[in-house]
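HUMAN: Spend a minute on the protein record below and explain its fold to me.
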Amino acid sequence: MFFIDPLYIIMILPAFILSIYAQIKVKSAYARYSKIPTMRGITGAEAARMILVSQGINDVAIEPARGFLTDHYDPSSRVLRLSEGVYSGTSIASVGVAAHESGHAIQHARGYAPLKLRSALVPVTMLGSNLAWPLLIIGFIFMSRSLITAGIVFFSFAVLFQLVTLPVEFDASARALKVLPATGILTDKEVQGARKVLSAAAMTYVAAAAAAILQLLYFMLRAGLLGGGDD
């Protein structure tokens, strides 16, 4: 069956290795800088509020969220949710993560096009993710080209979502790293630590995008849409 195809393993292996490496880097960077308090002793929640106010944004709520690094910005409800460790933490890592999520709120307020596109892709991506694998599995089992093609089309939405996510995440970090020293929340030296945490986190999105692209290429190869054959 296609999901144990040696070609699939060979193609997805680099992304799998990159994903493991990225997770290790994130945990290592966060663990290191979560032990280093900022000079001003500002919590992640306080830093987020200061950043938003500095950008003229006063209508975004900031709430604690359960879990480890479950931080995210919800544009539909205009709520910035920070994991408990980030919300109340006063470390460089906590402030860096909070600033990154604040970057998403700034993107929303400024009408950042890639964020709009990603939000618009959410429903179709969820639908595509739910339908793609069943269609592909059934299609390859019964060698139905129409089902395989349909599965590939639906899977393409998930790939597009991953690709659009990259500029959204990189831009949010860039905004965070720019505003942190400008507002005096972190010193220039502390910003370097925050940069390492956010750079490690960004690598996980790169790994996810690479995995999605390689899977799509595999399906297209096996369907005969690339390379001129499916053997």
